[in-house]
Structure formats: C-alpha cells, structure tokens
Design a protein that fits this description.
- This protein has 444 residues and is mostly helical.
- Among the domains are: 105 residues, Serine Threonine Protein Phosphatase 5, Tetratricopeptide repeat, CATH 1.25.40; 116 residues, Tetratricopeptide repeat domain (Serine Threonine Protein Phosphatase 5, Tetratricopeptide repeat, Alpha Horseshoe).
- 75% of the residues lie in helices and 0% in strands.
- The chain contains 26 helices and no strands.
- Helix 11 packs antiparallel against helix 12.
- It is globular, with a radius of gyration of 25 Å.
Length: 444
C-alpha cells in the first residue's frame, strides 16, 4: 500500500496535468467533484478508480491510465486492470493492453477482447486460442464466436465460419453485421447466389457487445459521446458544415482525442480543406502515433494532394498498427493502381477482400489489375462476382467482355456488349470495350 503522503503528492501532480476547462461544463463539474473526494480519501483505491473512469469516459485516456495505476497501487482488482487495458488499447498500444488484462480469468470480455486486440495485430493463432477459450467458458458467447469467424475469414478458412454464423442466427442473433459475415463466407466458398442475397443489404458495423464493466464506464460520459454521435449523424445526412461545427467544439474540449481529431479531419477532407485536414491529423498523430485510422486518413489527404508516395507510406503505417484493417489495404491498392504498380495493387486488393471488404469497386479494380497483368481467367472470376451483386455495373461488363475476348471468346463478348450498348447507349466504358474486343478478335 502506498504511504499516505506519497499518494497525496501523486494526487496533486495528476490533477495539475488535467485541464478541466477543455471539457463540457457538466463533465468538468463531475470530475472536479471526484478530484476533491479523492484528495480527501487519497488512500482509498475505489475513489481513484471512480476518478479514472470519469477521465476515461471523457476521452482523457492519459489521465485515466495514470489514475487507474494509482488505484492499483493501493489495491489491485480485475475491473481496474481491465479498464486500464481498454485505455491502453484506445491509445493504440495493444501490446500493453494485452499484457495488462492477461491475468484476468473470470471476466469473459477480458478474454475475447484480448482476441480482438491480437486479431488487429495480425496474431491469428493467439486470437484463435483466446476466442476458443471464451467459447469453452460460454458456448453462447457471440462476441467470441464472431471473433473466431473473423479469424477464419482472414486466414482463408471460410468454410469453418459458416456453421458458427448459422448457429448464431438460429438462436435469434440476426443482425446486418452477422449477415454480412455470413455472405462473405459463402462468397469465399463459391456459394455466389446465396452470398449475393446476404450481401445485398446495407452493411453496418458490429453490434454493441455485452461488456458490463466497459458499458458502466461509458455511461458516465457527459456530453462527449452524445456530441460525437450527433456529428456522425450529421455526416450521414450530408450536413458537413454542421458536423464540422460540432467536431470543432469537441476538439477544443478534447484536444488530444484521436477519434475526434480524425473525424474532424475527415470532414475537412470532404469539404476540400486539405490544409486544415493535414494540421488536424498532425495533432492526432502527435498525441496518438499508433492510431491507425488517423494514419489512414492522412493517407487520403496525401492522395488528394497528389503526394502518392506519402499516401502509400501512411497506408502502410495504418496496416502496421492494425493489420486487420481492410480499408487500409484497399486504399493502398488504389494508390498502387494510380502509380501503375499493378502487381503490388493486386496484393493489396486481394488482401482487402480477404479481410472482409465488401465494396464491389475494390473487387472490380482487382479484376482490372488482373486483366492488365495477363491473367484474364482470374479477372473474369472477379468481374462475374461483381455482376452477381451489381448486374448493371458497366465497368465490370466491359472488363468481363475483354477478359472473354482474351480467352478466345470474342464473339460471346460482343454479344454481351451489344446488349449493353442498347441498355447504356452513352456509356464510354462500353464503347471503349467494344473497340478493344474488335481489335482482339482481329488479332486472333
């Protein structure tokens, strides 16, 4: 146990480092009140823990980490260790997060959460072991089952994912994210018709998992979460200037919060304000250098600034910090496509799809790359998969026709293009494909 005088010294140092003027008024009042309580009860680990959760709930991870540590120095509890690990993960330090919660055996989210952190690090074998451990403890643990499914999808074992997902659905677990994963798995094993049905709905992220300790902490948020959610709704509605106003206000109160800064930079990028986006992301990366989404958004900004070497470098950084980020692979593929690095583009596009990217444009671009690298048979497979989901996609109709012609079926390709010319009389891709197929037929 810490000596009382030492604890009081640590208290004064910790409190001095947190500028409450940057928070919403209701948040700063709640934290200031708890700071006074903690000062009065400086050897009480519970008061330190409560203060840590208030910091954590309002995006002050640095302060939360130090405060949780002080609580643990007085008395160690699994709950404090777990939230400390979550705070480290929020900062992008997955390795320390894993080490912090590794000894927690009787709180199921601590086990499957480690699985997700290892998955983000690309440690598939360790992630598999952790997810299976959680499932052994509770065979109905959906977060662990979904985590195991994601490992199987990422490691080319899609057939193993299907029965797991079907079991979730049979128990009433129907959710768009589950349907997306099941559609992805069926597509990988060649069940294209069923996959197309499952993937036709709008894809959304995973549901909120049952994690009592984490949800108790986030419930303490006063202003932050609500405003962050409001900005997301404004972006979805196309009100970028409204979202910018909300996020700029949040960034003043939470100047070190990478999520807020990254979202604000994304809005700046969409508004064409590249300098503001760059400066905002520089702040985010300075405070949280391992925050993969900020690295990726900086890549988008560099691409918009026509600095393609830097764009690819930031995409690679995002992949380094979060190897399971399919969006980073997709973006890296696009940049390589722009620079005519077709073999490298093919690798990134294929990896993005392997990790669950459902954007048919990425699959179409992979088809184009395969076509340009002398692999018309593989290209044809990709275009066919796109057309099952989007039958009127003229880019894939054109690509399929050229692939067919290169494979010796130019007449069949011209039949497809003739129908497309009637359906899409002014589409330049169809016209170019028609001329290309005629040239290929003449040369055969």
């Amino acid at each position: 146990m810490l000596h009382a005088a030492l604890v009081l010294l640590l208290t004064s140092i910790s409190f001095a480092q947190v500028d409450l003027s940057l928070l919403a008024p209701e948040a700063s009042v709640a934290i200031a009140k708890q700071q006074k309580i903690t000062t009065t009860n400086a050897t009480n680990s519970t008061e330190w823990f409560t203060l840590g959760t208030l910091y954590h709930a309002h995006g002050l991870e640095d302060a939360a980490i130090e405060t949780y540590k002080q609580s643990l120095a007085i008395k160690s509890t699994d709950k404090t260790l777990y939230l400390l690990g979550v705070a480290y993960a929020r900062m992008g330090d997955y390795e320390t997060a894993i080490k912090t919660v590794a000894g927690i055996e009787n709180y199921l989210p601590a086990i499957w959460q480690q699985g997700y952190w290892n998955l983000d690090l690309g440690e598939f074998a360790t992630a598999t072991s952790l997810f299976k451990t959680a499932i052994q403890k509770d065979p109905t643990c959906v977060p662990a089952i979904v985590g195991l499914v994601r490992v199987y999808l990422a490691s080319n074992q899609s057939a193993k994912a299907i029965p797991l997902l079907e079991d979730i659905i049979s128990r009433g677990g129907l959710h768009p994210y589950i349907s997306f994963l099941l559609g992805t798995a069926h597509r990988r094993v060649g069940n294209d018709e069923l996959a197309s049905q499952l993937l036709s709905a709008k894809t959304i992220g995973p549901p909120v998992w049952n994690d009592k300790w984490y949800l108790e902490m986030t419930a303490l948020s006063k202003g932050y979460a609500a405003e962050l959610g409001r900005s997301a709704k404004l972006i979805d509605a196309g009100n970028l200037t409204g979202a910018r106003t909300v996020l700029q206000s949040l960034s003043i109160r939470y100047p070190k919060d990478a999520t807020v800064l990254n979202n604000l930079a994304t809005v700046f990028l969409q508004l064409g304000q590249l300098q503001q986006a760059t400066e905002t992301l520089q702040k985010a990366i300075r405070w949280e250098p391992r925050h993969a989404p900020s690295q990726l958004t900086m890549g988008y900004v560099m691409q918009s600034s026509n600095k393609l070497d830097l764009a690819l470098a930031y995409a690679k950084k995002a992949i380094e910090f979060q190897p399971g980020m399919s969006a980073a692979y997709a973006f890296a593929g696009r940049v390589c496509f722009q620079t005519n690095s077709m073999a490298t583009a093919s690798f990134y596009f294929a990896k993005a799809i392997e990790l669950g990217n459902s954007d048919f444009v990425i699959r179409e671009m992979l088809g184009m790359v395969l076509l340009n690298t002398g692999q018309p048979d593989k290209a044809l497979e990709q275009f066919d998969l796109v057309l099952k989901v989007s039958p009127n996609n003229t880019g894939s109709i054109s690509g399929k026709s050229i692939a067919m012609a290169l494979l010796g079926n130019a007449n069949g390709a011209l039949e497809i293009l003739a129908k497309a010319k009637v359906a899409f009389p002014n589409d330049p891709r169809i016209s170019r494909a028609w001329q290309s197929v005629l040239k290929i037929r003449e040369s055969q």
